[in-house]
Design goal:
The complex is a heterohexamer, with 2 copies of chain A (130 residues), 2 copies of chain B (135 residues) and 2 copies of chain C (102 residues). Chain B has 135 residues and is of the alpha/beta class. Chain B is built from 4 helices and 7 strands; from the N terminus they run E-H-E-H-E-H-E-E-E-H-E. In chain B, strand 2, helix 2 and strand 3 form a beta-alpha-beta unit. Chains in contact: A-B, A-D, A-E, A-F, B-C, B-D, B-F, C-D, C-E, C-F, D-E, E-F.
């Protein structure tokens, strides 16, 4: 089956993104497909590459980037939610006149249409939030 | 599976204290372009999103409640509001905004988008969906 | 030696207001802000629990938050009064400490 | 045409579990995850409300979250079972839709 | 005002679902260096922070519950736990970790840091502070 | 009187930081002092200069930076909370080997000791959170 997953809360603060990570891993292990994960609300903050968690804690961003690479998962960060919260890729930074960007490898910024499309194209949709 | 899916947006949170209500509305507006069957559910504190007379100057935030009145133009015409949730909060239908849509199949007659339903009817609405998005 | 308590969550969704009411002492003040202002409304499922303390505890709601949510001051229950941000500041100054029920 | 409901908040702090129980239909499943797992414990102030639905609704808790919080599976009330992430995946697949009570 | 203030850290949230419990503990540890009077209050879901037997391998998060047992070394020796909160959750004192401190004024005798108090006593603890930090 | 203020939630997502802003403004108008505001938990995310809110919405970061400049308020961002969540100044970025930083003018990164110190040195402490 095809599963779509939404992550609605930020890293470290809420468990939602950790639960989503374990759910996606388990789904793939059972032979399901997870073509896309959509990051909305504070979920967009998962995608910053500037995070430096303590050495004895998990690195949430790196874990997602690695999982996405291994299983070809499309990690989409909502552009409207990202702009409010200060998540930018190089294009957006240039367009907005900002002197830096902070998005990590494996994540891409796109519109809310990608969320609806995911709802249409997958068999099940699961949201992890607060 | 048909090409058209039934989408339900579930709103259970009050406006302004958190951003979920506003960002849910942004999804609804974008989603309207995809020509799916769209319904909105308002229960628990979500019913507070629809109160009339919201004035946000004093808190410095944008008043997004007028956007609900524009939903008809996007062919989003079914806003289910749970009666038990209203009752518990001391609210009646009169406390909510008037939200209308024009029915092109009925000589563009104006009809109300808000439908007050019982908890059991709300459970039926929820069970009749392909995709449920919660905010 | 009184305490100002603030509550910023809807009492219909969380237990925070009830917990605050259970710990506030006579002579304390409670200020409802943000989504907490719904706790001051008359005629709700929670009005009785709040009304039981309006004598011993000074209970206020932040008027800016009330207005934002479309609630007129007339909807407040008896014994609950609306104050602005300047009143919020005074409450903090007048009481010996502030306890924020998050 | 059944629904999997997930609840991730503590039932002692929020109304979310109660609202979910009030809307779940016979034949549906409820999975408690994260802080929601406390809702499956026996002998709490909320056990009766959950027990009232264990016949008609399949109620599960995520064992990884239960273990993290120091709760042994023996603390679960009768009629509530623990499943792992693989069981979570199966529940999503078996039911026609998932409704996440956030 | 004396040079020493009374600080109370109020813990009302469960561990792991959100980071507040962990980041509260980080404040307590840093705060211990400032030689203020420090007390901790655990009520509502905060009492879940102290359960014994936490094993977090399955959720991939760090188990920070052993840190509570180190608080005595930082001279943080008063952890008030509300009995009504335990009762409502079906918990007893036996479900909580044993947390001890050594009393240097009493021949280094080991004494328990956890003090189970009634709701009324908890209200007294709260009313007896200079600074209340909530998590 | 001297008021210390703690902000515990992120911008736009929770109203906490908006309430704190209005409270600080009102306190200063009434003649009180607010020497420091401490940003903890997701509150650290207020300090990113990469945020681009919609033009018809408030700019939370800029409002704080301006208020701090006008009234000489020390805006302190907790270093431990900031590192987890990807908020870095130039020094921290260099030290951590990151290729960008994102902190805005008027905010400075420092330790949790600054929170305790604020509790000791002010007459009242007010926390805005979730």
């Amino acid at each position: 089956m095809k599963f779509g997953v939404v992550v609605s809360e930020g890293p470290y603060t809420h468990q939602a993104v950790d639960s989503a990570y374990r759910f996606v891993t388990a789904a793939i292990e059972k032979g399901h497909e997870v073509p896309r994960v959509f990051f909305y609300h504070d979920g967009v903050n998962v995608s910053t590459r500037l995070s430096v968690p303590p050495q004895d804690e998990r690195n949430i961003q790196q874990n997602w980037s690695a999982l996405a690479k291994e299983h070809n998962i499309d990690l989409v960060v909502c552009i409207a939610a990202a702009q409010r919260r200060g998540i930018l890729d190089e294009n957006e930074a240039n367009r907005q006149g900002k002197d830096a960007n902070n998005i990590a490898e494996g994540f891409r910024i796109s519109g809310l249409g990608q969320l609806i499309e995911m709802g249409i194209q997958t068999d099940r949709l699961v949201t992890f939030g607060d | 599976m048909s090409d058209t899916k039934k989408f339900l947006y579930v709103n259970r949170k009050a406006p302004y204290g958190t951003i979920y209500a506003l960002e849910a509305l942004e999804v609804v507006l974008i989603g309207a372009a995809f020509e799916q069957d769209v319904e909105l559910a308002f229960l628990d504190d979500g019913v507070f999103q629809l109160t009339k007379g919201q004035k946000t100057d004093g808190i410095g935030m944008k008043n997004f409640s007028p956007t609900f009145r524009a939903l008809g133009d996007y062919e989003v015409t079914k806003l289910y509001v749970e009666k038990e949730s209203l009752d518990e909060r001391g609210l009646t239908a009169d406390d909510l905004q008037e939200i209308m849509w024009e029915d092109e199949d009925d000589d563009w007659e104006e009809k109300p988008s808000i439908r007050i339903v019982s908890r059991a009817e709300m459970a039926d609405v929820m069970a009749n969906q392909d995709v449920v998005l919660s905010f | 030696m009184a305490t100002l308590h603030t509550v910023n969550k809807s009492p219909f969704m969380t237990q925070t207001l009830l917990s605050c009411l259970n710990h506030a002492k006579d002579g304390d003040a409670i200020l409802m802000i943000e989504d907490g202002v719904y706790g001051g409304m008359a005629g709700t499922g929670l009005s009785d629990a709040v009304a039981a303390r309006t004598g011993a505890v000074k209970i206020c709601v932040l008027s800016e938050d009330l207005e934002a949510r479309g609630l007129a001051a007339e909807r407040l229950m008896e014994g609950v009064s609306a104050v602005g941000y300047d009143g919020f500041v005074d409450l903090v100054a007048e009481n010996d400490r502030t306890q924020n029920w998050l």
